[in-house]
Amino acid sequence: MKSLFFLGLLFPLLSLAQSNTYYSAEAGLGLSKGFDNNSYGLALSGNIGLSEKLFLGVSGGAIKITPFLKNVVVPVSLRATIFPFSGEETTAIFALLEGGKLFYKETGFGGRAQNVLTGGLSWFGGVGARFPTEGALRPFIAIGVAGMNFYNDQNIQEGGSGVDQAYRLKRLTIRAGILLPRFSNSY
User: Fold this and answer.
1) Which of 23, 81, 94, 161 is the Cys-Cys partner for 55 at CB 3.0 to 4.6 Å?
2) C-alpha angle 152-157-160 in degrees, rounded to nearest 5
């Protein structure tokens, strides 16, 4: 909950930082090997232009990984978006890189009361396309590889084995969304 509050404070600050800013809302689907632990989620981001082609921002959202996790994961990430070729009337290709932290805690993971599963680091790397429209909203689609790390602390003080286990989930991820009303002509 603290992470959502912190993220809520950052978004208004982004709009005050520069006029070269964009926001996005997106939905994503993560396909795991064997399709046994797929994920789906929603995210919002705020991004500041450092140049005409490079934007840095912050992203936050909610992800559900079924059947691996009981609850929703809250990812908070720093992101870089690079538009090597852009234009208002053409499709703009971009690269997207993200790295962040997964906020998650589940006591009793795997049916054992002493196990505590916590979120670790996450990352995403991919390419996408932003499509031109007549209105202010710009739809986009991106595809890439995502990774999420979780740690199972088998608490030895409560009768656990004392062995910590790391789960490193990697998946092909497809994202679709919209760039919210533009504040600059540079993207």
Assistant:
1) 81
2) 45
- Measured in whole angstroms, how far is the alpha carbon of residue 129 from the centre of its chain? 17
Instruction: List Cα–Cα distances, 31 to 5, 16, 35, in angstroms.
Output: 30, 37, 6
Residues in the chain: 187
pLDDT tens digits along 99-144: 999 999 998 887 777 788 999 999 999 999 999 888 878 899 999 9
Nearest residue to 174 (alpha-carbon basis) of 32, 4, 10, 24: 32
- Secondary structure, 3-state, 20-43: CEEEEEEEEEEEEHHHCCCEEEEE
User: What whole-number distance in Å separates Cα of residue 89 and Cα of residue 112?
Assistant: 57
The answer to whether the peptide bond before residue 67 is cis (omega within 30 degrees of 0) is: yes
Six-digit token string for 132: 């031109």
Distance CA 98, CA 140 (A): 17
